[in-house]
Amino acid sequence: MRKMQVQGVHHITLTGADRQSSIDFWEGVLGMPFVFDQPNLDNPDEGHLYFDPGDGRLITVFTNETRKRVHNRTPMDPGCVHHIAFNVSQATFRQTVERLNERGIGHSGPKDRGFMDSIYFKDPLGLLIELASYRFEPPAGSSHAAVLLEAHRIRVERGDYNIAEIHLADAIERIVERSTGTLSDSRGAADPY
């Protein structure tokens, strides 16, 4: 038996309300370009809208002009989607409260997650949306996931409860030491003063 190795998220498809509400939210609030449009090939009564969240992957939305917007929270039963998180820069993150407030969109306020900052709010159909901003950049040739894995290992070694910025900084240092050679006799910390 062998695995079917995935290489990233291809797309996520959500059930939306009407076409214009979907465009207004995904492009008009979150800034995702509306890049492709066709019928839902499995249901001729629905449209299928495609949005680019910024990394070239896709968020797609099934629309139906008879579905209306609701503001209740989507189900959180086992097997249901709890929320979807989208990456934003720190510059954008610092503007989220103001920009959500000017639209009258209720939100959680900024949340400190140790390795990232987050804010939560609902889409027009009650799906919880998170805007998240990492507090670090991975070393060249590495990824956020690789840094988080190394930071997790450091956190566990030290018996700490959750990942904090010190774990991230130490993880980045370890990754750089493993991936980049040096002509120095020692890679240890030094005091040149």
UniProtKB/TrEMBL annotation:
InterPro entries reported in the protein's UniProt record: Extradiol_RC_dioxygenase, Glyas_Bleomycin-R_OHBP_Dase, Glyas_Fos-R_dOase_dom, VOC_core
Family annotation (Pfam families): Glyoxalase (PF00903)
Coiled-coil parts of chain: none
Record-annotated VOC domain positions: 8-134
Name of the featured protein: VOC family protein
Origin species: Pseudooceanicola pacificus
